[in-house]
């Protein structure tokens, strides 16, 4: 026998559901989303796209720091600074999802008449879920190759990791710590311990954008100086935030031996892992005759297949150095499978094993001070479990709307016919 | 931005150990700090500049007797120190490697005498420090605000962001009285991997020194084969260096030597992709790209216990580091292995390179990795 809620409880539940699913809330959330989009777009004047994305659209809460030019004031520095607190994109979309599901699915009557609306709401809900899954479980990076080179590893664009490396025969044994676990290294020291290792690694002085500098006498470095075993003294100099050139992260590491407490100090600098940064050159220290390496690098993820760049083609607009078109011919080698050739160009990515390869860029760019040929191809790689979900969601929404409007058309036609026949009878 | 708004300190754990093949994780252990941090010459890959030398590589050969050698003070960036017996207040020291760049250090040195306006570097007298071209500064006044009546003579040679300096400070009368002996001391300086006299053979690690010669870092009492220096090692490589090649101090490249008027030769390691690199080297010489058949047809020479392809290119050199030599020739031996390419590159004027061809091939054949 099903327990029937008391009238008071029923009314409380119903009123909560009514409030949560209110159309007014939907409108307010959509308006807030509009304001947030406006603010996040303006913020890209001083933030890089990825930082604006993180700060405005992936956050729970954000303060929109904007300048309002007053009447007669032309100089931006004299404009009135206004701080507007806003819910972040994460919060708004989460509330919108709840509002959508409760209002459009739970509270809606499941009748044949409403089927189109229900399906449409489910499709929009799937779209929001796809975004949620992408944010939490997808990986993005790049594979950059010169012609003839191949790779089985993608390199993250923005995420760093600290890798501990040891050579074992022809292989490399590695352990990693993601940079997100080193958050405390900005203002303190993060200790990385492992009972199976004869040392502890202490990470400190984390800087998001910096450059290593040689220390000099009577200099007052802004951070601690690390002197390597070869006598070179280096410190990290913080660089001002530049949205167009975010720079490379750096930190200081101190390796403390478990026995004897001898210390090995060094500065690590997270240079990119492009085609010119191979092989990687970690900070090397030796304990009990075993050589270890510490490398601050962009996060690496191994691919389930190998990609070899056979040919890269770039054509410029006549008389300019502006590329009109560039594309890559690659060979994909999957384990146990036949190699297959794929041409990657605009809107024609390579898809394999939940990975999508887009033709993103090329190098060396003229800004780097180097000139091609040879050029290398930059293929953006996305590993997103919900990659195809937006497509399915669009189909579902299309189906729902079609059902709804066709049904409505039939109802209209039927009622018109009935009216007409009624009038004829009378 | 990534780590903003965090709690200070904390603990973290390594992930479980995972074994990767050398192809997946091409790694070069034991790389010197300056190379590792791309403190190169500002033109090599990486954002920062530089070349490399260490203070321990400098030595004074037969310095004037007035200079009494003192214990070095590395923590004070004083790699070689001398004093004058007649005036203990005067001191001269060599700093083999200091960062901060030329302009930063000039401002600091002039600031030590209260001078805010630093003259143009072109107006400073030319100076030579251990075979490297540099400039000379002479200042007098109140040194660091607490030593009135002092003077300073300072010679420096820059390599990118890094400088080697020889600094002589003391009471003005003493400094001026010993100006010539300071210059003589500067002339006596040379690096253990180079020479103050560009015509003299380089002092290499393991090289036999004349009887009674002052100790030279790295030198051994054994002679090498006739006409060659016996297999110096630098970083991960060692090779037999032909006569006439001058070791280049302060370079981040391995076994970096110079010859003739503009010629140079060095060993380097880069990422894989032989064809793309061949095209890059051809591009440096103003030549077009080649095809796979062109790469396959390249002659082979022995190197690193195996074979390397040999490029012999003529053209106008315009290297990625900015070096330009019209009418140049490039000899380059490259061996692709383990996900990377080791290459020996020799460039210079075409006629000078021709004279070095046999030595280059012998150098490649003798190249080996150090343990």
Q: What is the oligomeric state here? A: heterodimer
- Listing every helix as H and every strand as E from the N terminus to the C terminus, the arrangement of chain A reads HHHEEHHEEEEEEEEEEEEEEEEH
Global outline of chain A: globular
Q: From the helix content, strand content and strand pairing of chain B, which structural class follows?
A: alpha+beta
Looking at the overall shape, the CATH architecture of the largest domain in chain B is Sandwich
Name the CATH class of the largest domain in chain B.
Answer: Mainly Beta
* First and last CA, distance of chain A: 53 Å
Question: Largest sheet of chain B, if any?
Answer: 7 strands, antiparallel
Rg over CA atoms of chain B: 24 Å
N-end to C-end Cα span of chain B? 42 Å
Number of helices of chain B: 7
Question: What strand order characterises the main sheet of chain B?
Answer: 4-5-6-10-9-8-7
Low-confidence stretches of chain B: 1-5, 40-56, 193-234
What is the tally of beta strands of chain A?
18
Q: Report the structural category of chain A.
A: alpha+beta
- Please name the CATH topology of the largest domain in chain B: Jelly Rolls
Total number of helices of chain A: 6
Largest sheet of chain A: 10 strands, antiparallel
Strand content of chain A: 35-45%
How many domains comprise the coordinates of chain B?
Answer: 2
Describe this structure in words.
The complex is a heterodimer of chains A (426) and B (371). Chain A is α+β, with helices and mostly antiparallel strands and 426 residues long. Chain A has three domains: 10-137 and 389-417, no CATH class; 139-149 and 302-383, no CATH class; 157-300, no CATH class. Chain A has six helices and 18 strands. Chain A has helices at 7-20, 23-43, 49-57, 89-106, 115-137, 389-425; strands at 61-68, 80-87, 139-146, 150-168, 171-178, 189-193, 199-214, 226-227, 233-238, 248-257, 263-269, 283-287, 290-316, 323-334, 340-344, 350-352, 355-363, 376-383. In chain A, helix 2 packs antiparallel against helix 4. Chain B has 371 residues and is an alpha+beta fold. Chain B has helices at residues 33-36, 101-111, 172-177, 179-188, 274-284, 292-296, 350-366, and strands spanning 10-13, 18-21, 58-60, 67-70, 80-84, 87-98, 126-129, 132-143, 147-159, 162-171, 189-191, 228-229, 233-234, 237-238, 241-242, 246-247, 254-259, 263-271, 300-303, 306-318, 324-337, 340-349, 368-369. Chain B has a seven-stranded antiparallel beta sheet. A seven-stranded antiparallel beta sheet of chain B has the order 16-17-18-22-21-20-19. A three-stranded antiparallel beta sheet of chain B has the order 13-14-23, with no helix packed on it. In chain B, 45% of the residues are buried. The chains are: A alpha+beta (426), B alpha+beta (371). At the A-B interface, helix 3, strand 4, strand 5, strand 6 and strand 7 of A face strand 1, strand 2, helix 1, strand 6 and strand 18 of B. Strand 6 of chain A pairs parallel with strand 1 of chain B, so a sheet runs across the interface.
């Amino acid at each position: 026998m099903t327990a029937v809620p008391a009238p008071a409880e029923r009314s409380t539940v119903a009123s909560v559901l009514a409030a949560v699913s209110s159309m007014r809330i939907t409108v307010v959330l959509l308006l807030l989303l509009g304001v947030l989009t406006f603010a996040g777009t303006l913020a890209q004047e001083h933030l890089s796209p990825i930082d604006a994305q993180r700060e405005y659209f992936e956050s729970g809460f954000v303060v929109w720091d904007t300048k309002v030019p007053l009447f007669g004031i032309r100089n931006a520095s004299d404009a009135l600074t206004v701080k507007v607190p806003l819910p972040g994109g994460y919060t708004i979309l989460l509330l919108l999802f709840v509002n959508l599901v409760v209002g459009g699915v739970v509270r809606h009557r499941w009748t044949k008449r409403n089927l189109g609306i229900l399906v449409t709401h489910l499709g929009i809900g799937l779209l929001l879920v796809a975004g949620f899954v992408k944010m939490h479980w997808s990986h993005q990076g790049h594979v950059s190759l010169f012609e003839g080179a191949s790779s089985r590893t993608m390199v993250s664009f923005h995420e760093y990791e600290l890798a501990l490396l040891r050579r074992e025969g022809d292989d490399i044994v590695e352990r990693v710590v993601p940079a997100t676990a080193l958050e405390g290294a900005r203002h303190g020291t993060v200790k990385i311990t492992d009972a199976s290792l004869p040392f502890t690694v202490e990470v400190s002085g984390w800087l998001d954008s910096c450059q290593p500098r040689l220390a000099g006498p009577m200099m007052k470095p802004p951070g601690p100086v690390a002197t390597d075993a070869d006598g070179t003294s280096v410190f990290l100099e913080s660089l001002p935030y530049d949205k167009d050139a975010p720079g490379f992260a750096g930190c200081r590491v101190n390796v403390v031996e478990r026995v004897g407490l001898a210390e090995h100090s060094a500065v690590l600098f997270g240079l990119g892992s492009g085609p010119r940064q191979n092989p990687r050159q970690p900070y090397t220290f030796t304990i009990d005759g075993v050589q270890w390496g510490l490398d601050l690098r962009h996060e690496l993820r191994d691919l389930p297949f190998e990609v070899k760049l056979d040919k890269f083609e770039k054509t410029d607009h006549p008389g300019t150095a502006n590329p009109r078109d560039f594309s890559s011919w690659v060979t994909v080698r999957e384990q146990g499978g036949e190699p297959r050739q794929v041409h990657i160009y605009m809107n024609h990515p390579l898809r394999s094993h939940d990975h999508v390869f887009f033709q993103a860029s090329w190098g060396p760019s003229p800004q780097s001070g180097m000139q091609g040929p040879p050029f290398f191809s930059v293929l953006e790689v996305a590993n997103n479990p919900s990659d195809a979900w937006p497509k399915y969601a669009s189909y579902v929404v299309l189906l729902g709307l079609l059902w709804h409007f066709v049904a409505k058309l039939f109802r209209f036609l039927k009622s018109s016919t009935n009216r007409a026949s009624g009038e004829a009878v009378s | 931005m990534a780590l903003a708004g965090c709690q200070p300190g904390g603990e973290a754990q390594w992930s479980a150990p995972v074994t990767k093949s050398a192809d997946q994780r091409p790694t070069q252990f034991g790389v010197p700090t300056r190379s590792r941090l791309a403190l190169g010459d500002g033109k090599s890959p990486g954002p920062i500049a530089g070349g490399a030398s260490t203070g321990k590589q400098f030595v004074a050969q037969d310095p004037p007797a007035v200079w009494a050698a003192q214990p070095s003070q590395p923590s004070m960036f004083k790699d070689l120190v001398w004093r004058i017996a007649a005036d203990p207040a005067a001191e001269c020291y060599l700093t083999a490697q200091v960062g901060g760049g030329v302009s930063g250090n000039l401002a600091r040195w002039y600031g030590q005498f209260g001078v805010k306006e630093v003259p143009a570097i072109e107006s400073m007298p030319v100076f030579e420090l251990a075979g490297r071209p540099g400039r000379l500064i002479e200042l007098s006044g109140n040194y660091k605000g607490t030593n009135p009546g002092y003077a300073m003579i300072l010679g420096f040679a820059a390599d990118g962001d890094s400088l080697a300096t020889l600094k002589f400070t003391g009471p003005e009368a003493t400094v001026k009285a010993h100006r010539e002996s300071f210059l003589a001391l500067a002339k006596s300086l040379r690096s253990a991997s180079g020479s103050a006299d560009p015509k003299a053979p380089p002092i290499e690690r393991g090289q036999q020194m004349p009887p009674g010669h002052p100790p030279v870092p790295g030198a051994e009492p054994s002679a090498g084969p006739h006409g060659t220096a016996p297999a110096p090692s630098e970083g991960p490589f060692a090779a037999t260096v032909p006569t006439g090649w001058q070791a280049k101090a302060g370079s981040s490249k391995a076994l970096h030597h110079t010859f003739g008027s503009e010629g140079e030769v060095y060993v380097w390691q880069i990422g894989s992709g032989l064809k793309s690199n061949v095209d890059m080297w051809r591009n440096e010489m103003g030549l077009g790209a080649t095809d796979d058949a062109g790469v396959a047809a390249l002659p082979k020479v022995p190197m690193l216990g195996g074979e390397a392809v040999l490029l012999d290119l003529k053209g106008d050199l315009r290297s990625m580091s900015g070096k330009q030599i019209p009418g140049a020739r490039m000899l380059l031996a490259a061996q692709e292995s383990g996900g990377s390419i080791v290459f020996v590159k020799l460039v210079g004027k075409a006629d000078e390179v021709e004279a070095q061809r046999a030595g280059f091939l012998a150098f490649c054949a003798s190249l080996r990795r150090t343990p």
